[in-house]
Fold this sequence. Notes:
mainly alpha; 2 strands; two-stranded antiparallel ribbon; 14 helices
Amino acid sequence: MNKWEDNKAWFLILPVFIIVAFSAVIPLMTVVNYSVQDIFGPGQRFFIGIEWFKEVLSDGRLHEALWRQLLFSGLVLLIEMPLGIGIALLMPKKGWGSSACLVILALPLLIPWNVIGTIWIIFTRPDIGLFGAAINTLGLPFDHTASPFDAWVTVMLMEVWHWTPLVALLAYAGLRAIPEVYYQAAKIDGASSWAIFRYIQLPKMRGVLTIALLLRFMDSFLIYAEPFVLTGGGPGNSTTFLSIYLVKVAVGQFDLGPAAAFSLIYFLIVLLFCWLFYQALQAVGTGDKQ
């Protein structure tokens, strides 16, 4: 078999490259084109270089949205990662109970994002919502449409409820992949439950937890549909995250140049943080092996 016949398999993935080119590369090039031009209408455009990038980077509203986004993503990771691991540790290892837990955990992940926001609007209404009315009945004023703190709490609870099951399912998969001989050796040595978790389960789950961390950070940093449906970015700008701010610039103000420049900066920020997370986790894994 010659070299040409060995490489024929590449033709099988050629349609994938074509689809990616139309769905990702070409739109990206369009955004880059908009970010360096000032467009007044059909056939009326002027090259302005990096002026839109300078304008966006000096925008105080963008800085506020960025810090708000970082705080939100940080809180989400601090809550969902330990909670998901804890749920995975408590789940049955086999039998019908294991199957039932997996199905129940997967249910929130099957609900469309815009429907999640609608569900939580009804659930947290201060007059008829099960959660909102119950909190007000206890004498604690709660209204996510009027109080920035209540809006933050509501968005956080919604995000944790929606995506913690993903962390739990990934952690459970990592736990089930650990060979039983490790637990048998730990039992012979008289290791405690904490020692088993610290020296066996956690190191063996590092791969799936890295995936969970990166997925949850990217998704929480790009969150749009749920808070937009639930709060619309309010009250005020208290829940105006980067994605909502971008849509307001692009659609609300129809400033396509600044919006394009901002979307590229947004993409680079996500890419940078994912790379930093990955490098940090890899460094921790290398240190444990040594």
